[in-house]
Amino acid sequence: MARVRERRWPRGALAGVCAGLAVLSGCRSPVPFYADGHRPDAPVFGLGGPMPYVEPDDAATARPDVSGGRTGGLAEASRALGRIAPVYGWTRPGMLSAAVRGLPARIWVTNTARRAVELIDPETLQVVRRLRVGNVPREIVPSWDLRTLWISDGGGTLVPMDARTGRRGAPVAVASPHDLYFTPDGRTALVMTGTLRRIDFRDPRTMRLHYALRVPCDGVGHADFSATGDYVIATCERSGQVVRVDPRRRTVTGVLLLHRRAAPKDVRLSPDGTVFYVSDPVAEGVWVIDAERFGKLGFIRTGPGAGGLTPSRDGTILYVSGRGTISLIDFAARRVVGRWRLPNAGSTGMGGVSADGKVLWLPGRSPDLVYAISTETGRPVHAIRAGTGAVGLCVFPQPGRYSLGHTGNFR
């Protein structure tokens, strides 16, 4: 794992040491966790002490065990180079599951005014179908087996839709569903019930409640699993915390305060399984969390409204949607390497990448547009008038063996 140094280095001192000893020692300068000219020791929110430097080592590019079995920890798993696929090793272009082969590509977008979900054809860039939901739709979540799309709504229900036919199933009463996830083994559905301060463990097909776990934080909303699936971390937007849960034992195993004024939102695991990235629109950036030790490593400043997190199809870049911009974080370097601007765009929500990786799809909340952005140029290919107050967008199908939920977290 990365080694944290708390002290500050004199300007240029470390670079000079590295230059002089590079041949002998392979020294590398620390990677600052602030971008765009911000000093690496600049405090978040203007409060507290300096954020630490993080010096990368060989473990930063290692690939951990994702076989699902228990190991001696990520550090040990990281040393098994060349034998184990990375976290997103099954989500590359063309790696579609047999469950979705032959299914036409569609962009599913919520329309709160019409209480419906609209389907966009990415080839014609037109809305080709509108599916009635009943209540106000919020999130669109692919099921673990990729055969159903679950629509959460403001009326306290989850509505199943057949991914192939679009036929609506019977709504299931679920208390305060903010987002929906599935354990990597497909045996359990996890419903994040933010207003009730709990995570509901449910049957992944019927959504029958098995167990309600109270969590010691407020506003639990989004989550992601470790590389081995042994635990899940969830963001608590209202209390500035991140909570860690053992899904097998159904217990809370850790709580981490990011900052008393933080508002953590989305979360994604790095391709090597060593860190979690947590977006924070209030702090205007992304927190970096040590996956093994469950502690803060640093912070990457991206810009206002940092919200949705989407890995690129090749697993090298993390797209961070913001207010009128998309920031590109290099997974290996852990820093911002680019920024795309959306002209005349307000806030953008959580989206997804096309199956071939060439287009990033994002919902716009003001105005009510859906943006298709080229991942090669960073320019909008098209802006489609679809949805009203769109908060949910799902690109489906996508490569992957199964879905962990959310707007499309596949592995």
UniProtKB/TrEMBL annotation:
Signal peptide annotation: none
Protein name as annotated: YncE family protein
Organism annotation: Actinomadura alba
Domain of life: Bacteria
InterPro entries for this protein: Haem_d1_sf (IPR011048), Host-pathogen_enzymatic-act (IPR051200), WD40/YVTN_repeat-like_dom_sf (IPR015943)
